[in-house]
Fold this sequence. Notes:
The chain has helices spanning 44-51, 67-85, 88-96; strands at residues 16-17, 23-24, 26-29, 32-34. It is elongated. It is α+β, with helices and mostly antiparallel strands.
Amino acid sequence: MGETVPFGDAKESPLLQLTDGRTDGYIVDNQCMGTYVHGILDNAPFVDFLLQPFADKLTETDKSFDYQAFKEEQYDRLAEHVRKHVDMERIYKILTDD
């Protein structure tokens, strides 16, 4: 994990307060921010926060996007594509042969 240190006369403006009390990242406004937290875009409330400036352009603003479900659906689609185009029995045989 990195450490954000404001440069020059910039004031501290952490994006996040971690559960252990440390801070992370930097935020200028809702369009300019940074973080070291891996997987932060898997966090639905944070994604909603990022998309809030564009809420008036969305048709279903009262409903949060379920990113986890979307990812699982994409993994399932990829697995189906691989099963369709790869000889899985051959792959399993290669994996289990000594």
